[in-house]
Automatic annotation (TrEMBL):
Keywords recorded for this protein, A-Z: Cytoplasm, Lyase
Keyword Cytoplasm attached: yes
A molecular function GO annotation: methyl/ethyl malonyl-CoA decarboxylase activity
Family: Belongs to the enoyl-CoA hydratase/isomerase family.
Protein's UniProt keywords contain rRNA-binding: no
Protein purpose: Decarboxylates ethylmalonyl-CoA, a potentially toxic metabolite, to form butyryl-CoA, suggesting it might be involved in metabolite proofreading. Acts preferentially on (S)-ethylmalonyl-CoA but also has some activity on the (R)-isomer. Also has methylmalonyl-CoA decarboxylase activity at lower level.
Record's protein name: Ethylmalonyl-CoA decarboxylase
Entry-linked InterPro entries: ClpP/crotonase-like_dom_sf, Enoyl-CoA_hyd/isom_CS, Enoyl-CoA_hydra/iso
Length: 305
């Protein structure tokens, strides 16, 4: 299996506990050949079902925008788009200047899950499990990116699209938008890691309600249960994307190494046992202590102003 770029990037630093964390997590991914998963094999199968694209735009500010683009299918994931997403995540893992990421859908809707053409063609159990592992790997790597990520939800986020929103650190919703885990209506449960992440975001009881009832979560309910961070009101200047960029810029202001370090210590606290999270925090601390941003802050003596 090709080594995940996130591991290559982080092992270049001195963050020993963080590197050990990624090694234990199958080189930054959930599944590898140890689990019977052959990434190149499923990539070839998925690429046989083309349509749409995943576009990535990086900015000098350190913010990137990832766009799910298949408007004729409500931005549903074709097989080739699943491969595109994995490739875009690899690009982001190697982006040393990255601080923030916005995930959006094209043409005013977020994502309606999987394209049924690919789903029908991969309906046998073996292929379905391989697709499941491929997307779990990709979305786990997306969540573990050393940058702060936001899902900008316009229109509908259904099924796999709802799962994609949970692979971001935050969710911002436009008025009239809906997040709905419709898997039950398809005789399924989430398979891209969405259920496990949803429990961590809203708690087990709310997750049971959303999955068991296939509840249409509007912005008001999303705020109430903690699924969304904020509703981007229609009034005001700028597009929803511009307002999302303004919202995210509050948390990504500062040098990239510092923002990345913040994400790393939060991620280790979320995923590791306490003793290991503390050791990782110590190692990440060592990558910024005495660094340019730290020395500049000390020179300005601005801490208590």
């Amino acid at each position: 299996m090709v080594m995940c770029a996130v591991r290559q990037h982080l092992l270049r630093g001195s963050c020993g506990a963080w590197a050990r964390f990624l090694q234990r997590q199958s080189r930054g991914c959930v599944y590898s050949s140890v689990h019977g998963f052959q990434q190149e094999e499923i990539r070839e199968k998925l690429q046989a079902f083309p349509g749409g694209s995943i576009e990535l735009l990086t900015q000098e500010s350190g913010l990137a925008v990832l766009t799910i683009n298949y408007p004729s299918r409500m931005n549903a994931f074709s097989g080739s788009m699943m491969v595109d997403l994995e490739e875009r995540v690899s690009q982001l893992e190697g982006w040393t200047d990255g601080k923030g990421l916005i995930v959006q859908g094209a043409s005013g809707t977020f994502c309606s899950g999987s394209d049924l053409n690919a789903v029908r063609a991969l309906s046998n159990l073996q292929d379905g499990m391989k697709m499941c592992m491929f997307m779990q790997n990709t979305l786990t790597r997306l969540l573990r990116l050393p940058m702060i990520s936001v899902a900008l939800v316009e229109g509908r986020a259904l099924g796999g699209g709802a799962e994609l929103t949970t692979a971001c650190d935050f969710r911002l919703m436009a008025p009239g938008s809906v997040i709905q885990f419709v898997h039950k209506h398809m005789g399924l449960v989430p398979g891209w890691g969405g259920a496990a992440r949803l429990v961590r975001i809203v708690g087990s009881q709310n997750a049971l309600k959303l999955l068991g009832g296939a509840v249409k979560v509007d912005p008001e309910l999303a705020l109430q249960i903690g699924l969304a961070e904020e509703v981007l009101q229609g009034e005001g200047t700028g597009t929803p994307l511009q307002r999302a960029e303004n919202w995210l810029s509050v948390y990504t202001k500062g040098p990239a190494p510092v923002i990345q370090a913040v994400k790393k210590v939060v991620l280790s606290g979320r995923e590791l046992p306490l003793s290991e999270a503390l050791r990782t925090e110590k190692d990440v601390f060592g990558t910024v202590w005495g660094g340019p941003a730290n020395m500049q802050a000390l020179a300005s003596k601005s801490k208590h102003r």
